[in-house]
Design goal:
By secondary structure, the protein is of the alpha/beta class. It contains 15 helices and twelve strands. The protein is globular, with a radius of gyration of 20 Å.
């Protein structure tokens, strides 16, 4: 009987061959509402799909008869060595996928030799991540209506030794993730089918809920009303806290409170990239929030080349949204990115097998990137350039 292709059915990460396989393991290991929180995009999910389509549309033009021995993925980010041009992106509510999810992600990144970015809406205190994981730590910042929250986060992150601050600029209005909402009868209240589905995942119930309790927004719990620090209560309060009045003038305010490297996360135009450079930022993150905010938005890879040409010599350029293969990473580097941030790909590994799963995801991407380098006739990531793409 001929072999029939079907979704990956294994349960162990060691048998997974790619990020898609890790995704399948993750999908089976956590309840549907938790997986949908990770997986879903805004409204029609057109932006979510476009991120992958735009990357897939790029094709390589390899060089041949080139000595590709001794290949290296090493690079530098903010004058410090990274083992690969990768960083783990900031994501919230990771404790819903795996107990101590933020620490597992940070430890995997530290062991691999790349930066990890902690979200303002993490379920672990930033001080605990620094103490228990170490490595190169970056902090993502949401500026909310109560500016004291941001000032508190910046002061604590600086004291804990975080290297860089990523000021998220594309969440002034909270996105509408409709598929995620369908799991809830009302904000914070799961529908009965979602509850019954969660009961079919006893390992998740024991590890996540019974042993650790409902995940809490520990970094901002001091500023939330009683009962609103949990993933259940916070979902009704936090979207109302986002600040619609943030502007470029707030960069100076952030600079007064933050002594380290500063990046603006959410840039998608040459004009805004130049504004970031003129404002004294150290870098930018090209992102559409993984398709979770503005629907029918351009994919970051579509605007990377023109932004790199405009400010690549003035700013460190980081990109995320839709990256699933080492070949995707190579395409971004060829178009002028200095580093690629990995979001869902790392979370699939986390949901599949905790820290081991995250490390497996990073290993996969690195092996794929190394292979693509060799097949393109490159010996280092610095050799990647736009002429290798069509």
């Amino acid at each position: 009987m001929p072999w029939k292709r079907r979704p990956f059915g294994g349960r162990g990460c060691a048998r997974a061959l790619n990020i898609a396989d890790l995704r399948e393991i993750a999908r089976r290991r956590v309840p549907g509402f938790a997986f949908e929180y990770v997986e879903g995009g805004a409204e029609d999910e057109a932006t979510l799909r476009r991120n992958r389509e735009a990357l897939s549309a790029l094709r390589f033009v390899p060089q041949t008869l080139v000595d590709t021995s001794g290949r290296s993925l090493e690079t530098t980010v903010f004058d410090r060595r990274s083992s690969a041009p990768l960083a783990i992106a900031p994501t919230g509510l990771n404790g819903m996928l795996h107990p101590g999810g933020d620490i597992a992600l940070a430890r995997a990144a530290a062991g691999f030799g790349i930066p990890y970015t902690l979200s303002t809406l993490s379920t672990t205190r930033l001080e605990d991540v620094a103490a228990q994981a170490g490595g190169r730590l970056w902090m993502q910042l949401y500026v909310m209506k109560n500016r004291v929250i941001a000032e508190d986060i910046m002061a604590r992150a600086a004291a804990a030794g975080f290297e860089a601050l990523l000021f998220t600029s594309d969440a002034n209005v909270f996105g509408s993730r409709e598929w995620d909402k369908r799991n809830y009868a009302r904000p914070g209240k799961l529908r009965l089918p979602a509850v019954l589905d969660a009961m079919r995942h006893p390992r998740w119930l024991i590890d996540v809920l019974l042993r650790k309790g409902i995940p809490q927004f520990h970094n901002i719990e001091a500023f939330l009303p009683a009962g609103a620090a949990s993933a259940v209560g916070g979902s009704t309060i936090i979207p109302q806290m986002f600040e619609p009045t943030i502007t470029w003038t707030d960069i100076a305010w952030i600079r007064r409170h933050w002594p380290g490297k500063l990046l603006v996360k959410g840039v998608l135009s040459v004009e805004d990239a130049r504004r970031a450079a003129d404002a004294g930022c150290d870098g930018i993150v090209l992102t559409n929030h993984g398709g979770r905010q503005l629907d029918y938005c351009v994919a970051p890879i579509e605007v990377l080349g023109e932004i790199a040409a405009a400010v690549g010599d003035r700013l460190t350029i980081i990109i995320d949204s839709g990256f699933r293969r080492g070949s995707d990473v190579a395409k971004a580097l060829a178009l002028g990115a200095h580093t690629v941030m990995i979001g869902r790909a790392a979370l699939y590994g986390l949901a599949a097998d905790g820290e081991r799963g995250v490390r497996r995801a990073l290993d996969m991407l690195a092996v794929e990137l190394d292979r693509v380098l060799g097949q393109l006739g490159c010996r280092s990531v610095a050799d990647l350039r736009a002429s290798l793409l069509r």
